[in-house]
Amino acid sequence: MLLKRKKRIVIIGNSAAGLSALEALRKRDSLSKVTLIDQEPYPAYSRVITPYFIMGGIKGEEGLFLRDKGYYQRMDIKMRFGTEVLGIDTRLREVLLEGGKKEVFDLLMIATGSSPVRPRIRGLKNDEMGVLRNLDHARQLKDLKPKVSKVLFLGGGLVSLQTLQALYQKGGHYTIVAKSNHLLSQTLDQEASELVEQHLERMGIRILKGRDLVQVKKKRDKKIAILDDGEEIDVDFVFIGKGVQPNIGFLRRSGIKLKRGVLVNQQLETNIEGIYAAGDVAEAPDFFSGEKVNYGLWPSAVEQGEIAGKNMAGLKEVYPGNLKMNVTRVFAMPIVSIGDTGSKRVIEVLVKKDEARKIYRKICLNGQGVVVGAILINQVEDLGVLHGLIQERKSGEFLRSKDLWKSPVSYGFLLKNILQGKI
Amino acid sequence: MIKKISVYPEKCTACRLCELACSFKKIGEFNPVASRVRVSMFGEDAFYTPIICTQCDEAWCMKACPSGAITRDAGARVVKVNRERCVGCRMCTLACPFGTITYYAPEGKAIKCDECDGQPECVLFCPTGALKYEEESTPTRLKRMETARKLESSSKEVQP
Questions:
Q1: pLDDT, tens only, B39-68
Q2: For chain B, which terminal residue's Cβ has fewer other Cβ atoms within 10 angstroms, N or C?
Q3: Residues B62 and B107 in one domain
Q4: In a domain, B24, yes or no
Q5: Residues A35 and A296 sit within 8 Å (Cβ to Cβ)
């Protein structure tokens, strides 16, 4: 594209993907006019660490903000924060904003993230459902924490578990209600989940699997949650952790191809030239299959944003693909899950279990012996090295030969094998 | 030229003085768990090597950090963890394929080598020269590139 005037670039979304796109772009292009739009009025903050903020582990809101005060000025951008995007005219190449305003663009980056799914539950209005996605939610939960001691968490995923730990107080009553037959079903296998469930139960958390919340009844100032089997539970508060959905409502009639999210190719470009998407809103190729997927992870959003930003600056970078990677802790128990740990691709597993020490380690290999996934509980020191092996599509043969489980797989072990020609 | 920590595995005897020196400098205790440098030991192959952060250009730990705690100052080479900002989520330890940023449980924070602001204690105490703080000379650089090539070609052996 040969332009005599300065390029006009619009980035919608001031979080992980939007910021890293902006930085990758500005490193290579200081001339283009860049506009950064976000629905929220705040400077960029970390969604990932909001549970720590609620818990009190971070000194105030300042600790959530990701960049210093002079950042946006240095980036030389036009800021439109607290502004809702209503639509995109892909023919005129305009972003339509609330109040009839618009921004014209040559290149566009869609990084609008996702929103919590709010299931319909009788007797529970939308604004009575606890969710945790943005700063306003985090503030509400922090204020609420001293006032609620009987909390029901609907959904057995990471957000429920993190929020549970953030709201947890001794003497409180906490119940997790999950439809699936084990917790963290998107992240762990049955055996690993069992360790987590036992750990939670030791902390006094009640876990109800294969169940659902159908109604919340109010009796004077008391709330009663009613489950699908008729059980009634006294609650102060209901938290919903049923996953997220990409924010694509404003793109419905834009001509940009959508499925669950915005479909992008390996360059993170949509079906329309010069329009990119990254982060939670995007469905990008999977690391293994190339199918369009969305795992909604912070590091993936950063990586995708960076590649989209480079491509907007004229490079031809290719995204290596969406790879699941989670590390979290549940009441001090570290839990790691990387890559593919359960599909048909997994042909062989190397497993170690230590019942007494509550250790579970599983490394998954595909038909060619390549490492494709790992689950680690309680002994997780080599998470980075294993992640590296998966990313590099290395053979796991050398893991088989060694009495691997005496100690974690260190980089030194890899180095030795590489120098000996075994990898 | 800028100095950096170089590792010579063939000189390492697994005495682990580097680990003790590092932890003593950082927390005032002889505790290898708190050490930013770790010695990998494989007795039957007589293979020993210190593993320490290389302060990579593409610092994956820094990119993955969701709390803005890992930074490299403008113009600097060393990547540092800001202890005030670190929440101990371990995302950086997942991102680093070398395992050179680690989670230190007693503090609940990530720790990594900061080259002791130009006076690395591990190098000072290494008796064999397996760890050196030096400008990268041409021969060292060539040797490094050779190792890098080996690593590179090994990763291409297996295709998905």
A1: 998 888 889 999 999 999 889 999 999 999
A2: N
A3: yes
A4: yes
A5: no
